[in-house]
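Retro notes, item 3 of 5
We never archived the inputs for the zinc ion complex last cycle. Fixing that now. Sequence and ligand:
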Amino acid sequence: MKDRDTREPSYTDHPLDMGQTIHWYLTVSDKILDGLAETDRSGFVIPLENPRHLSIDKSQIRYLIGLFPPSAIARSGLRSIKGEPTIYFDKASTPGEPKPTENVSEALSPTAFAPSYTDYQKDPRSSGIESVIHLFEIPAEVDPKVRRIIHAQGFVHEYAHSIITPALYGKDYRLKLTSGEVVEAEELLQRFAGEQEKHTPFSHYSSGYRSSGQKFEDTARPKISVNEELAEAIAAELLGFVYCREEARRFNQFYDRPDVRQTVRDFLSAEKV
Ligand SMILES: [Zn+2]
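Structure as it came back at the time:
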């Protein structure tokens, strides 16, 4: 294990640089892909534009949505998915202020590309928040198996946002837990924040929003930091892996934070009332 780690510093440690993540995915791609069956479990149809840019297909997208409990799918504001050409993060980018560029020579590094992004809009028919997921083409230099893992993880992360964001910003958003208790969504999200902030950032990516030991309220934009950490925790819960600094947690994502896992599960299985 030590040998593997000594090769990682050839990539920058910047949270927007996927280099270290790609390196780890490559070493474990068969194990991860074993768990990413292609069978469609959901039957949900969501409009998909420009699929040629995607490393996952329609049936895999439906499978990934099917990993979410029906109560979570019912709360998602996702309206469409769009494939887009490759976008890199410019040298001046920070996670809170990413600056996109199409030119790899202006990028933080050749592996600092965006896998996915979500656009939001108010639903004109209600007070809800709708979303469009953009999946950006992953450079051809990346191993095809790894490209698939990156888009699968990116899609589940963005789909999680399509559920979290309406709860985080919506008014009168109440959730009925499986126990029958009805809570304000804000209360449940604050519970997640209070538990998660006692621990290391959930992933390498989310460490760009909250550093170790930092409280959410002390981050530049607390709601965005909570949204990102919860999206990463949900993706880890549903996919069974996370790229984080602590090697012991990559396939055992909640071993040191079972309370966080319980709250993630409570959030996913709750019904909007
Ligand atoms: Zn995100």
